[in-house]
Fold this protein.
Amino acid sequence: LRVSELVNLKLNNIDFNNCIIKTIGKGSKERIIPISDYALHYLEIYINEYRSSMMKKNIHDYVFVNNHGKMMTRQGFFKIIKTLGYEKNIKTPLSPHTLRHSFATHLLDYGADLRSIQELLGHSNLSTTQIYTHVSSEHLKENYNNSHPHGSN
């Protein structure tokens, strides 16, 4: 999800039975995103055990709320990501887009095709998705250099 899609996610956008999230992305296009059983499990715990206590007197159906019970903002989410990165001693700059980029790169590194990654990221143009092939090419070169007898060890 883009950070804007995440903070605008509503409870009825989550289909727990089919393990998908429906979101409205750029250009007002609906996108279907698969979500793992693992992620759904913890999302369900958050919704059922924590969200209602965080709502205070507010009434709305946004999934993620801030400590005032209001809809989480893009800036609020960015702040949470930065704090978690600091707490986990992650030295590289961290942002919601960094997580999206890492997601795409991992998919590519483990064999997903560009067209599937394009769909998952909600890119309307494949050339936008191809940006991630550079990172994956670097990964391939590193593996070659470390593994092949004629690689530059």
